[in-house]
Write a structure and sequence with these properties.
This is MBL fold metallo-hydrolase. It comes from Parasphingorhabdus flavimaris. InterPro entries: RibonucZ/Hydroxyglut_hydro. The N and C termini lie far apart (46 Å). The strands form four sheets. This protein has a seven-stranded mixed beta sheet. The chain has a five-stranded mixed beta sheet with strand order 10-11-12-15-16, with no helix packed on it. It has eight helices and 16 strands. The chain is α/β, with parallel strands linked by helices. A hairpin with a 2-residue loop joins strand 1 and strand 2. It has one domain: Metallo-beta-lactamase, Chain A, CATH 3.60.15. Helix content is 30%, strand content 26%.
Length: 253
Amino acid sequence: MKQLSQDFWNIRGDFKIAHVINIGTHMSVVRRPGGKFILLDSYEPAKQDLDALMTLTEGGSMIEAVLNVHPFHTIHCGFAEKLAPNARLIGTRRHHEQKPDLHWDTALIEDAATQQEFADLFDFSIPSGVDFISDDEAVHVSSVLLRHRASRIVHADDTLMYIDLPALAQKLIPGPQLRFHPKLADGLEKRSGAADDYVRWANQLASEWADTSMICAAHNGILDMSGQNFPEAIREALDAAAPTLDKHRSKYG
């Protein structure tokens, strides 16, 4: 468990595709001004991180809510409920459908009214032009992005991906890379204007969250924005996605 600011911690974890390729996952811990805690996403950490989390939150008793922000990240939600049984367990519509045995709060994190409950602590953003919950179980393009206002740290799942290239590859392709989900082509709504809506959303995000200090990405790490700026990183990600967006425009308009 790594402390990134006075009131923000991030816990890294393993998630393997086909039990072989580890693309990583995560959970963030945010302390409210009053001393209570909010968990962002659900993950069962290794013992050392779990012990640190339990110490920080007084055995889980100080955890006020768990916000599960990606519809397709459901594996560890049961653990989160056991960890903090008195906390509000908040997820998306798909969480309720996939894990109906858990004691979900009636509020859904994709709803504006739910986000308003936590607006004193976070900024929220949901991509436009893509399906929030795709019919294709392999398409995890969309999620609810959060930004902790006090620290200017973004917590992101899948929608924004951090590609930390090996040192040898960085000689050819400089730097850590911020990219949109590789299945963007499948996630875009099959209608005219969807690609432009996505670009508009990305540019608005770049503008409104311009002073972002770090990005904690589920896949696959923490991107420190010192030395680059968030709008530039988003523009580079859009440039990388341009062929996908152009192909969609050609097909749907």
